[in-house]
């Protein structure tokens, strides 16, 4: 665990660069994770405070963040005290794994009051605590039991620091004291000696100091290596004093994170990759942020998938019922024929007859037609004709309903595909808005009259320099196709759900075969057949597309088109957003 006290000092120093920023919005994505949208000098960013044991992050990032639609009571409390507040400073609580963030905000009377957030980065004991200027606790992510004998964390109680440890600060020891302490501890591993003797160190930093001194992290402390250990130790302290930090992380061959620190970690050998970063924010957001984003995407996508599957199940059930009713209407011609037979033989029917045998002139066969003895012959004929007319009207209406219901099923299935391919929380938010506008989600789930700002479709440049745009969801598909030039080329996977892809030629110049192939591959890649081989893709000019009135988002029809067979792979190395 590299988020030790000294790492906190480095992060606090960096976050101070945003002192003076105004807090515009506050979100809480989990019990131990808050996002503050801040603004300063014409620039907006997201200030992330995550005290999760598995994903500790204190960072300023431009990346999109998960924004739950319904704020928690804790989030509302933070908004009450910190909305529109000024971020004053971040301060390391010396020798502790704690950073204190100071904010100035106006109270109900307009007076400026100081509020603090204590981010305690202590592994499974991590906490985020909001206090007033006098230290009275307003909120805590993790509350202690009322029976706790020491350090009770409860609303209304004064904030207390953790109990002091019987260790020495790395800044409060000279060479003679260090060597004397070493001689007292001879016979123990050097890393253990450092870890148990000095405040703010984590196991990884203690091992790194020992490794730099002696090329081995587990070597035993002895008189012969005291001087080398001190030299490495004081070099380490100088980095902290001079603030010459090097944010870096170690990754294995599969790009899985091993450790991170504010000094280059040399103890892991050449088989692993050391990546250096321009800031601790970049380090933490890459090291933990992708995991955090994946967790958020997974959580919110599951909610959307559940909603869509519920509507899809209902729609499919409705479709089965409609088709069954349409099957019942298949006997309408039989009703008409029976009416004709009764009419043709009405002169032979007597009141009280329960059947009549007559000729069906269409088939040339005699049939027996049951009669209602309570009705007259003419009323029996009318009864069959009415059944025929009713079934005929119903068959027309049912056919229309079946077509619409099948369209809804197809639309919902396409939404599931876009949810599965969503790359970030913003894309999921747009899909959620799309569902709300379609009546599949209530306004309460997306906020009152709140519209998600429209994002731009994905954009690529072909090898030969033409622009290709790809829709991220059905609304973008409509926007992309509806705003394309008539001579632009439209691509879509054949027979499956996927994105609309638009290739824009250079004037009247015909795109090259490679332009066509790369565009078709994008259409196959951004579809439910991603990763497949030999996928068929339709393409045509935009002028050949039609958007039926009242059709679902992303739905178009076309008759004139060509097809190509490609692999469903992204032909480009990276996306240009």
Give a quick precis of the structure.
With 577 residues, the chain is an alpha+beta fold. The chain has helices spanning 5-15, 73-82, 175-184, 190-197, 203-214, 226-242, 280-328, 332-344, 377-421, 425-437, 443-446, 474-482, 513-525; strands at residues 22-30, 33-40, 43-51, 56-61, 86-92, 98-106, 112-120, 127-132, 137-140, 248-251, 257-261, 273-276, 355-360, 365-370, 458-461, 467-470, 489-493, 501-504, 535-541, 562-566. The chain is 37% helix and 21% strand.
- Major pleated sheet: 6 strands, antiparallel
The number of distinct β-strands equals 20
Number of domains: 4
Which percent range fits the helix content? Answer: 25-40%
Report on this model:
This protein is of the alpha+beta class. It has 4 domains: 136 residues, ibrinogen binding protein from staphylococcus aureus domain (ibrinogen binding protein from staphylococcus aureus fold, Roll), CATH 2.30.310.10; 107 residues, Helicase, Ruva Protein, domain 3; 151 residues, Helix Hairpins, CATH 1.10.287; 109 residues, no CATH class. It contains 13 helices and 20 strands. Strands 15-16-18-17-19-20 form a 6-stranded antiparallel β-sheet, with helices on both faces. Helix 4 crosses helix 5, helix 7 packs antiparallel against helix 9 and helix 8 runs antiparallel to helix 9. It is elongated. The two termini are 35 Å apart. The model has no long low-confidence stretch (mean pLDDT 88).
